[in-house]
Amino acid sequence: MIFLRRTDARGQLECLGHRWHVDVNWPHRLVRVEVDLTHEQVRFYKLRRREPACQPLVKTLHYRVPTHRFIDHE
C-alpha cells in the first residue's frame, strides 16, 4: 500500500492509526509511505516538487498488521 502524507512541525505524520516520527529536518513536507505487508515494514521517502525523480529513503520501521477485528463505530 502507498500513502502520501504531510509531516507536521516536528517531522511526524499520522498513518494507519499511528503517529510516526519521520525526520525533524522535514517539517510540513510531503512523504511517501510504503507499507510492505509481506516483509512487515513501513518505508518513508522524502518527496520534492523540484526534484520529482529524487525520492530518498528516510526511514524503515517494523509494522505488523493488527490481528484484532476492526470495530465499526456508528
Mean pLDDT: 92
How many E strands?
6
How much is the radius of gyration in Å?
Answer: 13 Å
Based on Cα principal axes, name the global outline.
globular
Please characterize this protein's 3D structure.
This protein is mainly beta and 74 residues long. The protein has one domain. It is built from no helices and six strands. The protein has strands spanning 2-6, 12-15, 18-21, 30-36, 41-46, 57-62. Strands 1-4-5-6 form a four-stranded antiparallel beta sheet, with no helix packed on it. It has a two-stranded antiparallel ribbon with strand order 2-3. The protein starts with a strand and ends in a 12-residue tail after the last strand.
Secondary structure elements and their pairing?
Elements: E1 2-6, E2 12-15, E3 18-21, E4 30-36, E5 41-46, E6 57-62
Antiparallel strand pairs: 1-4, 2-3, 4-5, 5-6
Outline of this structure?
This protein has 74 residues and is an all-beta fold.
Features:
43% strand; mainly beta; two-stranded antiparallel sheet; 74 residues; 4-stranded antiparallel β-sheet
